[in-house]
Write a structure and sequence with these properties.
The chain is of the alpha+beta class and 186 residues long. The chain has a single domain, classed as 3-Layer(aba) Sandwich (Aminopeptidase). It is built from six helices and ten strands. The strands form two sheets. It has an eight-stranded mixed β-sheet with strand order 1-2-3-4-5-6-10-7, with helices on both faces. It has a two-stranded antiparallel ribbon with strand order 8-9. The protein starts with 7 loop residues before the first strand and ends with a helix.
Amino acid sequence: MTPPSNLIETEIPRVVLRPIEYLDAQHIEDAVSDERFPAQLPLSERVRTGQHKVWVESMVLSRTLGRPSFWSIDISTKERCIGQVGLLMDKQTTKLWLAYWLHPKHWGQGLQKAAVAALVNYAFRELQAREIFAAVGQWNERSSGLLTRLGFSRSGYPGPGYELNGENHITEEFFIDRQKWIDKNA
């Protein structure tokens, strides 16, 4: 599964996905420092502990090795990395997992939906992925709603969950398969 080397366009002409870069670490810090950014997200903990730079480096390396990775969301106002969308392969199950975040100052404009839809479309049409999964914290109604609007279904299984600051966070698993996506977006 080789990611593309160029940009992915979205349904919103001013929004484009580009490969993750080392310099995106600063943009991640800026977004997470916004008081509205959910402290319950693992990305917040990565920034708080300084591990986000290592994470960005690992995503850049994954990409250069031809593995699924992250894309940064840029907009035509020349704002770079206002968020990210990514695909990660679970090595044990070979499930393809979707992850995403957006700077709070851009919430409610349809930008995250356009970015997620563009990457999912690319994964199904170009990479020939069979299905895509997402794990969403049960507290994150905004993210659950986004996936539902895009045609994802709740699997009925709990997601992998995560621990943050000594607290367990329960996640719900969502999924969509290639045929459902193509039928919905024909």
